[in-house]
């Protein structure tokens, strides 16, 4: 599953800038039945951070003296984590794993949108399936599309607040602070963006694949036929797409 099987820890750890944290690269998108496993792996490694300057020793990075305390753990979780990746926002929300994992993929921009297909060398007219006017990128689809905006605005009026969405999925989740909500409403608030992402993606796929005339559906058929006739094992459409392009 990993892009490079013999990678050193330093190669999958980004020590600088906004993206500080683990940066595993996977060879393909995951199947539904693999998502639980991957989620558990990611939750495990997120607890560890790489300190390059110092000699190896066990320290707790959330407190100043390096010793563990429950208080430091609590304040770390309250702040939404130390990294600039919205891990806490994604994995602490009480949503099904596949919903959380989709948000995780979307935050990394690793969702098979038409833009991603174009980057892989496919020539297609990139049009958002929802609004049929803008180009389909993950941020357009999940945040800025006028059809998606209806859903966001409905959410904000349900909670009785006005809110400005950030430019990207990642920054939207990073800024998704529910501190001003009561304890019970906060849980719903934390789940809300992940639910919208998932609902929009499901609807997008229904529109994309429900119509026989769309080329993506044909691609899917091709994948099935190739699997049957060439004994090529591609467990997902994404790996098949990569294989064609290789
Ligand atoms: Zn759109």
From TrEMBL:
Keyword entries, A-Z:
Membrane, Transmembrane, Transmembrane helix
Q: Which Pfam families match?
A: zf-RVT
Q: Which domain of life is it from?
A: Eukaryota
Positions of transmembrane segments: 150-176
Report domain Reverse transcriptase zinc-binding positions: 68-152
Which InterPro entries does the record match to this protein?
A: RVT-Znf
Protein name (database record): Reverse transcriptase zinc-binding domain-containing protein
